[in-house]
Amino acid sequence: MDYLRTLGSAAVSTLVQKSGLTLPFILGQKVTAFDGVWTLYDAKKRDDGSLVSVFEYDCTMRRGMIPIAKNALRKLRTTRHPDVLKFVDVVETESTIHIVTERVRPLQDVLQSWTSRGAEEREDWLLWGLHRVSVALAFLNDSCASTHGNIRVNSIFISPSGEWKLGGFELLSNPKEETAVLYTLGGQLPDAAAWASPETKKGGWAVLKENDPAAGDAYALGLLLHAVFNPTHPPPATATPPHPPPQPSSRGSIPNSVFPSFKKLLNPNPRGRLTAKGFLAIGLADTGFFANNRLVKVCLGLDNFALSSESEKNMLLRTLNDSANSFPPEFASFRVLPSLVSALEFGGASAATILPLVIRFGKNVSPEDYPTVILGPLVKLFASPDRGTRMALLDHLPEYVEKLDKKTMDTKVFPHLQTGFSDTVAVIREATVKSVILIAPLLSDRILNNDLLRFLAKMQSDPEASIRTNTCILIGRLGPSLGYNTKRKVLVPAFSRALKDSFVHARVAGLMSFMATIECFETEDLATKVIPNISFTLVDKEKLVRDQAFKAIELFVKKLETHVATLPETAVPEASETLGITSPAQATLVNSAAGAAGVLAGWAISSLGKKLAATDMQSTMASESALAIDRPTSAPSGSASTHSLDVQTANLAGVRSGLSTPSLPKGKGMQLGAHKVPASVAAAALVEQLAEEAAAAESDGNPWGNDDLIDINADEDDWSAFETAPPAAAPPESNGFSDDPWDQGENGSTPLPVQQPKAIIPQARPSPVPTLTASAAADWDSVGTWDEPSAKKPPSSPSPQAATMLSKEEKAAEMARRKEERKQRIAQMKEQKRTNVNQ
């Protein structure tokens, strides 16, 4: 086949070179199935690349038939009919004639491919083809008053849509024409006698001029009918003298309904012979073989669709829908589909019914042609204001959205699609919301993260509960495709808004959306934003919401547990050292509130006890000496006590932390006591504590926002303890210790040259154990209860100076003075410590 094509193309190239012309087409493969006066080629136009067929006639090889070839060119150029081969162009030279027509295939070639089809399907297709040929013949015989003279299988061509096209106009002639070739050159065509009528065989071709122009073509139509239904059978017996009528036994595959008309077409008498027009009328009767043919009915309905009534349109569309799968693929793609697409331009109530059929028939269109044949008309329909058309476009969007590209979506579809968000009909709004998930992959980042989310935000306030619910679900499905910043700004507020919806399923949708987009949230956001916004749904009035809320919380907590398992036990190790926590086991987990309180108390006390040295743990508290440490002015002072007590290790208070231990039972009463701590230990602890306070002061000060926890501008009630605090009792002179712990330590070291700090560590002086007065007990109750035995102090009268009421300005001045003194003391102690280290 390639060899023949090469030879044909080479021959044409030689002819073109001799003529010096450039053909407006590119010749392709030679169609070998066609055998006649012409040579048929598949070709392509140079200007637009459209597919065409080229009939070539070599004048140098068949000079005697040049009038026949030129008659075919003249008649084909001037005859226009839907069922006639469509003329496109011609290139005529002295040596060649090239006629360019629409792309077709010979009927002989197509008949062979239909032998494997079903009998009913093949019968419908053949009757439909004969109907088209009969229509063309009736047009030539009646309207043109001409005789075709060459009706045979080689004169019929099949278009890409499967329609039969009448060609072979070599002998087409009108009896009134002086240049008619039929009556003089009709016998020169190959096999002309085999298709000639009985009167022609008897009296020659000139006899046709005396008879009805349709008589000779009608006889050939009968022979054509027999040839297409029985391609392997010989011609009927009536074709040869004495021309007996066809017998039912010779019917073959000809339908019973057609056979009577077939016999009339082969009538030897031209005056009693059934013409093509009569054959067409019989077939189109109410019970005729053409009227009941589904392909014929579909073609007639499509041709007159614009002029049909609504009921006729609906009936045709119903027929197309029911018979769509049984249509030949080429018929559905190239005959039905173009007619339906053109009908869509009229819109109206039928547009919503036509659109599904267009998409259904468009499945057989090649991927190269789909954008122009199907997508082009569909995209234009988005601009239609008809709601029925819009609903049909949205309902069938899944069937063609994959064929769309991003540019078409951004520039031609979405600008019209977005009008559905604000439509007054709720069905259109809901369909628009549902369609977004399909087109989201085709939207640009600007539209997806900005324009679209603005519309969805409005949809969450829609009066229809189903639209609000579907909008929340849509945002949840769009979450992973949104930008990073958009996720953090939009998802939590959008889903939280759904959780507050009055519609139960909208709240459930909000919870499920949170769960579906769990990977879109940072772990910190889960703990600080997601769970706090979900927690109130745990007590929702609807059980459905509560159950879903607990599942959501469980999911988020599991992810947090997984994340926390990868974190270190603490981010600030020195904090654990400060509290004396050396093992994570001390932070015991509990399952109840009471257990938590007990564990917290025991944990704090035991950690403080572990800060003491082993020797101190076994020592007893001495009541004859104590550290002279100033108390806060607002706290009452106690007198020295000479009573010493043995205290259990777990109840000791650490010097650095200054925390207390749990109180004794009420039966033992509350007692004040002093802690017996060596002076060297107390001095070191005081230096370290002052250094820590200095470091905190050099940083941002008080982490609560103020340098002092007491607001000097607050009400006077805050300062009542400061104003009415009793004066500190004078220490005993015979205890061997100075009130200032830095005067002379037990080891005889030189005291530090600093003043005694104020309000840093509570005093612990040995004192007698008098009974507490009510006022003193009340003062200590404000500080807290203690578990260790404490000495009672005698009541003392308040100092006149302390009892004096101070104004707010005096208070502020006093606080500023104390702060300045504290800073100076800290600086001096740092310098002294640095000097000792250097020595």
From TrEMBL:
Pfam families, per the entry: PK_Tyr_Ser-Thr (PF07714)
Gene Ontology biological-process entries: tRNA export from nucleus
Pro residues compositional bias, start-end: 232-248
GO CC field: cytoplasm
Top-level taxon in the UniProt lineage: Eukaryota
Biased composition, class Polar residues, residue ranges: 634-644
Domain Protein kinase, residue spans: 1-290
Region Disordered, annotated ranges: 232-254, 625-644, 722-839
InterPro entries per record: ARM-like, ARM-type_fold, CIK-Related_Protein, Kinase-like_dom_sf, Prot_kinase_dom, Ser-Thr/Tyr_kinase_cat_dom
A GO molecular function held by the record: ATP binding
Biased composition (Basic and acidic residues): 807-839
Classification via PANTHER family: N-TERMINAL KINASE-LIKE PROTEIN, SCY1-RELATED S/T PROTEIN KINASE-LIKE
Protein name as catalogued: Armadillo-type protein
Organism listed in the record: Roridomyces roridus
